[in-house]
Design a protein that fits this description.
Helices cover 31% and strands 16% of the residues. It is of the alpha+beta class and 309 residues long. The strands form 3 sheets. Strands 3, 4, 5, 6 and 7 form a 5-stranded mixed β-sheet that branches. Strands 8-9-10 form a 3-stranded antiparallel β-sheet, with no helix packed on it. A two-stranded parallel sheet has the order 1-2.
Length: 309
């Protein structure tokens, strides 16, 4: 009997499973928006300390976001404050993470309640200064299933007015417009066939470093395909990387390869197609060991927990 996509995405992955701390989920509300706000109140982004007049301790700034698995994130949270997860944490008690951690925790909550959910890797235009949309920044959101409307994008990082007011957010964080967040495959197509400037897609603009353009977007396609298969690695876990340095152009053969891959992870994604592509393509499939380019701790080889899917 073929695997139903709702069943697949309504169950935990190796990465989203709360493990021995699943009992902490007994207090979860069923409303996806409430779960998003819970997530927001348990995590603070590495780059958000200034919004809360706070200074992240160096060890947390360097190490928290290297935590791949939700059970380990929950252990860190409980160790800092043993209150129920529904209780808002002071900033100093929160997990110091990235967009991936917000999205994966929200996804974990949703899956625990049987709501199909997955994380999506792509590019948001709403973190540009004054909401100008000049740059599409590397970002991760949750995609969850709505029985009447299908898949919706949710950005739990935006559920705090402190954040939304700063970035002039003018949409519902539980229904992020598809033209404000482009999944990686759509970003690739925007560059290759839509005339978009590759310099406007990346971790940062070109003047701030080399992590932008076609090579960076291609890496996000690999991450997004893996996440669609419930392999939700760190954003700086790398495998099957094309030869060349960050910022250098991709060879033409690689461009043509991602021209074929991008449509599979764009638009109305075919569950069967993303499962087949990930299972059969050695370049795209996440191997047991990856290279982790940890921003603060430096590169190293990491063996991942065996995937449950």
């Amino acid at each position: 009997m073929p695997l139903d996509f709702r069943t697949f995405y309504a169950t935990q992955s190796t990465y989203s499973d709360p493990g021995a701390l699943a009992d902490r989920y007994a207090v979860l509300p069923r409303d996806p928006a409430q779960l998003a706000r819970m997530t927001r109140d348990l995590i603070v982004h590495r780059l958000e300390a200034g919004f809360y007049d706070h200074v992240h301790p160096t060890d947390r700034l360097h190490n928290d976001a290297e935590t791949r698995y939700i059970d380990d994130i929950l252990r860190i949270l409980v160790d800092r404050n043993d209150a129920p997860l529904t209780q808002r944490r002071e900033v100093g008690d929160r997990f110091v993470g990235t967009c991936r951690d917000f999205s994966l925790l929200h996804c974990s909550f949703l899956r625990h309640l049987g709501i199909p959910a997955r994380i999506r890797s792509g590019f948001a235009d709403y973190f540009s200064e004054n909401g100008s949309g000049r740059f599409h920044g590397d970002h991760v959101v949750t995609e969850y299933w709505h029985d009447d409307r299908g898949w919706l994008l949710a950005d739990s990082q935006l559920t705090d007015p402190v954040i939304t007011d700063h970035w002039n957010i003018d949409f519902d964080p539980m229904d992020v417009p598809r033209d404000r967040f482009l999944v990686a495959g759509e970003a690739w197509q925007a560059i290759r066939t839509g005339g978009a400037d590759p310099a406007t897609f990346g971790l940062h603009p070109p003047e701030e470093g080399p992590f932008w353009g076609e090579r960076f977007v291609a890496g996000n396609i690999r991450l997004d395909l893996a996440a669609l298969n419930k392999v939700e690695t760190l954003l700086w876990d790398v495998w099957s990387e094309d030869e060349g340095k960050p910022g250098e152009p991709l060879p033409e053969r690689s461009r043509l390869f991602y021209d074929r891959v991008a449509p599979v992870v764009s638009g109305e994604v075919s569950f069967d197609a993303v499962r087949k592509l990930f299972a059969e393509d050695d370049i795209l499939r996440t191997p047991p060991t990856v290279t982790c380019y940890a921003p603060f701790n430096g590169p190293g080889q990491v063996t991942l927990r065996p995937s449950s899917v």
